[in-house]
Amino acid sequence: MRQVSTGKAGPNVLEGMMAYLLGKLDLPPGAAPLLLPAATMPQFEQQFQKAIRLLAEKTARRGELTTVFDKAGVLLCRVLVTCRTLEEAIQNVLDFYLMVSPQSDECGFRRGGRSALFICSRHPTLRHSEASALVLAVGVLYFIQLFSWLIGTPLSPSRVMLTHTLSPKAEPLLRVFNAPVAAGAGYYGFEFDAELLSRPVIRRAEDIPLFLDGFPCRLFTAMPEAPPLRRQIQLYLDAALAHRDPLPRAGAVAAMFGLSEATLRRRLRGEGCSYDQLRDQAVKTTALRYLADPSLSVDQISERLGFSDSKSFRRAFHRWVGCAPTELRKTHCPPAG
């Protein structure tokens, strides 16, 4: 495999590569130029995104490859935000592409020691052009940014692997990976810290439109900010209750977010709350939702919420609301007829 030099990419370098991209597009005479003079960074990224999508469509028409820059990519986002952890999200990526193309062996994943390897695409014998190789390299960036967004922290790959070698004019793009890049690996993918696999997915469906704006071509501007820590923990607790998972103690939650327990508690204090308050609020909200369902008994609700017995649930509920769950149900959910 050949190692590619990947120093930091500056705007001038990438503008040169953008001009190279436009040359690969073979735009018809009179077509509006994509590269505007004196473009701002957000404008540059939008132009780059448009160019790479046009290039992807061109290679798809030639039958060289299928890409993730289409409606399937949006649908994939909607699937992944329902996952609990990054590892579960990655498994859903594999299942998604197997469902879309049952004969495909596109994606892969393996974990070994402290490293995890995600394979975006396997094309060892692909009839490829420079254009398709460039599109596939951007596909690697797609998954790095997608996984980073899901967990609200940079994935920071330790190594990026490509099947095909890009020409020197296209190689400046590889600098956005900020990691060693090896060409000739037989697949397109990247290695990253396996500890991130247990990180909870903190995004929800309402976050998707902002993320997709400019994705996957955010080269200089920042990704959408992660929600405040209290909101991330609320989302995690709500998802755990929805899956009927036992709610962990503060130390376990801190570890999931890559923090010490002391740091977790200090940051939550700075946001005006505590982990115990967030935990109680999540259980209370779910209990109220369950009580609105007359088909569930108090004993069933207690079991679903993870209480040791219904007496413990009743005591906790009285502390939260000031009355027994049966009293609240009678007041707010009177029997029909």
Essential attributes:
about 325 residues, alpha+beta, Arc Repressor Mutant, subunit A, 2 domains, six-stranded mixed beta sheet, about 50% helix
Computed Rg: 24 Å
Q: Determine the structural class based on helices, strands and strand pairing.
A: alpha+beta
Please state roughly what percent of the residues sit in beta strands, choosing from under 5%, 5-15%, 15-25%, 25-35%, 35-45% or over 45%.
Answer: 5-15%
Q: In sequence order, what are the helices and strands, one letter per element?
A: EHHHHEEHEEEHHHHHHHH
Can I get a quick summary?
The protein is an alpha+beta fold and 337 residues long. The protein folds into two domains: 2-212, no CATH class; 229-332, Homeodomain-like (Arc Repressor Mutant, subunit A, Orthogonal Bundle). It is built from 13 helices and six strands.
Description:
- The chain starts with a strand and ends in a 5-residue tail after the last helix.
- The radius of gyration is 24 Å and the shape is elongated.
- Helix 1 (11-25) packs parallel to helix 2 (41-61), helix 2 crosses helix 5 (130-151) and helix 8 (250-256) crosses helix 9.
- The protein has 2 domains: 2-212, no CATH class; 229-332, Homeodomain-like (Arc Repressor Mutant, subunit A, Orthogonal Bundle).
- It contains 13 helices and 6 strands.
- Strand 2 (108-112) and strand 3 (115-121) form a beta hairpin.
- Helices cover 48% and strands 8% of the residues.
- With 337 residues, the protein is of the alpha+beta class.
- The chain has a 6-stranded mixed beta sheet with strand order 1-5-4-6-3-2.
- The model has no long low-confidence stretch (mean pLDDT 81).
